[in-house]
Amino acid sequence: MLKIVVLASGSGTNLQAMIDSIEKGEIWNTEIAMVISNNEKAYALDRARNCGIPAVCISPKDYPSREEFYKKLLFTIEEVSPELIVLAGFLVFIPEIMIKKYKNRIINIHPSLIPSFCGTGFYGLKVHEEALKRGVKVTGATVHFVDEGTDTGPIIMQKAVEVRQDDTANILQRRVMEEAEWKILPKVIDLYAKGKIKVKDKRAWIE
Ligand code: GRF
Question: How many angstroms separate the Cα of 201 from the Cα of each of 8, 116, 146, 184?
Answer without folding.
Answer: 27, 21, 12, 22
